[in-house]
Every structure is written in C-alpha cells, then in structure tokens.
Design brief:
There is one protein chain. With 432 residues, the chain is an alpha/beta fold. It has 2 domains: 5-9 and 61-260, P-loop containing nucleotide triphosphate hydrolases (Rossmann fold, 3-Layer(aba) Sandwich); 265-407, Distorted Sandwich (Coagulation Factor XIII, Chain A, domain 1). Helix content is 21%, strand content 32%. It is built from 8 helices and 20 strands. It has helices at residues 24-31, 84-91, 124-134, 139-153, 168-181, 198-213, 226-232, 250-261; strands at residues 5-15, 57-68, 73-77, 99-104, 108-111, 186-190, 218-222, 235-240, 243-248, 271-273, 286-294, 303-305, 310-318, 322-323, 325-333, 338-343, 351-352, 355-363, 371-381, 385-399. The strands form 5 sheets. A 6-stranded mixed β-sheet has the order 5-6-7-3-8-9, with helices on both faces. Strands 12-20-19-15-16 form a 5-stranded mixed β-sheet, with no helix packed on it. Strands 10-11-13-18 form a 4-stranded antiparallel β-sheet, with no helix packed on it. Strand 6 (186-190), helix 6 (198-213) and strand 7 form a beta-alpha-beta unit. The longest helix is centred in the middle third of the chain and has 16 residues, at 198-213.
Length: 432
C-alpha cells in the first residue's frame, strides 16, 4: 500500500521585508548569486540555521521529508515560527514550494485559519454547499450529510445568517463540521480548534479519532495541546527551524519538544534571579524578582530525593496597589502530562501595597513519582485579569528513595506516587 501523503525534500524560501524583487536587475542578480555581500540589517534577525542563500532571505522550510499511511493521525509540534503552518499551506496548495515535492493521493480538506474557505456575505447554509463544492463533492452528496453537519456544529438557529456576523467560535464549529463530514481522504487541522470552547474541542477530537480509525482517513494535526497529541496520534513530527528535527512516537517527540522549550538557564541550580535584569517577568503592576526550587535545607536544587519536600519560592515586587493577587504553580512532566496545579488564593492578603513580597509553596515529600518535571508559574487578579500568564521556568528531577516506586527497578506509571497506609492480616479459615 502506498502512502497517502509523501513529502520529499520540501523547501520554501522567503524574502524578508518585501514581496519579490523591486526590479528585473535585482531578480537577475539574486538568481545569479550576486550581491550576497550586500546583506542588510534584516539578515541579523534570522538565525544562522535559517538564513537563505541571498540577502534578506530565510528558509521557512528546508529539506523536509516524511510520509503517512491511510488511517494515520500524525501530530506536528514545534515552537511558534518553526514552520508548521508553512508546511500545511504548501501541502494544501495555498503556496508553492521553492524545491522538493509533495504527493497527495486523495481528496484534501484543510482547516488552517478561522473562516478558511467561507464567504462572509453568504449564510451558513450556503457556505456548507460552497465548501463542499470546493472539496469536489456533488450537491446530492453534500445534501446527504447536511443534517449531520448542522447537528454537529450546533449553529442551527443561525444557519440562515451571513457568516460575517458569526463569532470566531461559531466559525470554527461550522468549518470543522464541514471539513470532517464531507469525507476527505486527507484532513489538515492547524491549531484552529483552540478557538472553540472546551466541550466542542473534546467533541472535535473524538470526531478526528473516528474519521481516522473507522473511516480510514489521514489526519495531520498541528497543536500545542500535548495531551491531545499524545491521546490521538500514532506518529508525531517535531519541526525546528524549518526542518524535521525528530519523528517517532508522540511520547518521544513531546519529551524532546518540551525539553527544548524551557530556556537553557532554567535548569541551572534551581535559582532564576532577575533582580539585576532590566526585563523581569510580570507587568507595570508587579514584577517577578526571583523563582527558586529549594530542598529541605533551603538550598536551590534541580535534583530531589523522592522523600524530600520541595519548596517553590517566588519573590516579587508590587509596583501599584493590587487587590486579590494570587499565584498559581503548575507541574507537568516532560511528556506533557499535568501533575497538578496549586494556588495561594486562600493564603494571600486581600490588598498588596507597593513593596517586596515572597510566597512559598511546599510540595510534600513522597508525593511525586521519579521523573522529570517542569515548573510553571502564573499570576493574576482572581476573576479579573492576568498579571502573568502561565510560564514554564525550571526543570527539575525527582529521583532516589522515598516513595513506593523507589523499591522497584522498573519505571512506575503515573505522575504521583504517594505513600499510602496499608494493612495485612492473616485470617482463620472460618473467616472466609
């Protein structure tokens, strides 16, 4: 059986600052490789790995190759700007590659941006038929699926309203319903589901699994939701600097991706100190001065015995009076599993006047399993607004003795491994 998608040495070169060349002479010189010494300040904005062969050019993609079989759900992960959306736009025939080729064996549907393929002046009903026609469906085929699409999208009462009056969430509901129900052999989805509410996202993820597993369709899913990638996908691809940095199982790819997203200095000593830095996390009302992970003796560490408690210490300066300030910490594994979130909401004072403060959360010993964790911190005014969105800061390792899993050589499942109280008693035969 041939792959339904084959990508061979796909590359895309972009020109910074303008569209194309400004003259025939510039085009000729660029083709002939001249003027390469006339680099402008735009070249300084591009990393060496992505710098193009001509001045003011960079590689959006470079020598990307992979394949996918029918019925596979392939996750594509990477940082913003890595080249994920560029890849899907080339595969969707929205833009042409500079070199290489992509072979797609089957009908394609793409959901890359909110409202893709919708005409704002047409109603939802009319756009369903328009999208189906674009996908190559006959009118009777669209009509046969019409009721399912409307029911899934949950926008039935607005079906005869021009879609220019739809919210972004309504756009996504209808667009996904059309793309998933009109039976394309290949479906591309680029993070657009993040616009929908949690209930609809869950519904869409279930539908993607059904499309692939029961109907044998191939799905490419770009997302920053690592839990969804791990739950849905059989294979995953990590895009870094426009190239395929790694491919394999979702767990392996996610581990590598998350390890790369945490700053290099985040793991050095468990002590991030911004006191003498011009740029400090926070905003004009509150600035983070320091974040530390401390062992029971008060020393910053990034490796802890399983039995030891871990203190997460946040030092911050209040610059303007704040009411109902709270911090939230989050622990996730390198595989993207959420261990827990905790907040100091009930421990904080109601009003913070300008000044220097410190809040500390103690994670009890014997709770966490042996593995790598990433510490994230968030600050907000409860129910009002964010001061600092959840940001990952420190990697640390829990190892050694002190919990249930420490007595076994094999890896123990789960992110928590608390020591529980157990009793065993011998009973007389009459007790059975």
């Amino acid at each position: 059986m041939k792959p339904v998608v084959e990508v061979q040495n796909l590359s895309k070169l972009f020109h910074l600052g303008s569209i194309g060349a400004t003259s025939l002479r510039e085009t000729f010189e660029r083709i002939m490789g001249r003027n390469t010494s006339k680099a402008t300040h735009d070249d300084n904005r591009v990393s060496a790995a992505r710098r193009g062969p001509y001045p003011n050019t960079f590689w959006g993609l470079k020598d990307v190759s992979f394949s996918a079989m029918p019925g596979e759900i392939v996750g594509i992960v990477g940082r913003n700007g890595a080249g994920k959306s560029t890849l899907l736009k080339i595969l969707s025939r929205i833009t042409e590659p500079t070199s290489g080729r992509a072979i797609l064996r089957g009908r394609l549907a793409s959901l890359l941006e909110v409202g893709t393929g919708f005409h704002p002046e047409l109603t939802g009903r009319e756009n369903i038929f328009l999208n189906g026609a674009i996908l190559g469906m006959k009118r009777w085929e669209i009509a046969a699926k019409f009721d399912e699409i409307v029911e899934f999208s949950e926008v039935g009462q607005f079906l005869d309203t021009p879609v220019k009056r739809y919210s972004s969430g309504m756009f996504v509901r209808l667009a996904f319903a059309v793309a998933a129900h009109l039976e394309p052999e290949i479906l591309f989805i680029d993070e657009v589901l993040a616009v929908g509410d949690a209930g609809f996202q869950k519904k869409c993820l279930g539908k993607m699994g059904d499309v692939a597993n029961r109907q044998g369709r191939t799905v490419f899913f770009v997302s920053h939701n690592m839990s969804a990638i791990r739950a849905l996908c059989r294979e995953a691809i990590l895009i870094e600097n426009g190239t395929v940095a790694f491919s394999g199982t979702p767990s392996d790819v996610i581990s590598r991706y998350l390890a790369a997203t945490v700053p290099d200095d985040a793991s050095e000593g468990g002590d991030l100190d911004w006191r003498h830095h011009a740029e400090q996390p926070g905003n004009s009302e509150m600035r983070i001065q320091r974040i530390r992970t401390l062992d029971p003796t008060g020393r910053p560490q990034t490796t802890f015995e399983a039995a030891d408690s871990i203190d997460v210490e946040i030092t911050y300066r209040i610059l303007a009076p704040l009411r109902d300030l709270r911090f939230r910490i989050q622990l996730t594994t390198h595989e993207g599993e959420l261990a827990f979130q905790a907040t100091d909401h009930t421990f904080q004072r109601e009003l913070h006047e300008p000044g220097l403060y410190r809040t500390t959360c103690r994670i009890p010993g014997g709770l966490l399993n042996r593995r790598m964790y990433v510490l994230g911190v968030q600050a907000d005014l409860a129910g009002v607004r964010y001061i600092m969105h959840m940001t990952e800061f420190i990697n640390f390792l829990v190892s050694g003795a002190g919990n249930q899993s420490s007595h076994f050589p094999e890896a123990w499942p789960g992110v928590l491994c608390p020591k529980m109280s157990w009793t065993t008693a011998e009973l007389p035969d009459a007790a059975v």
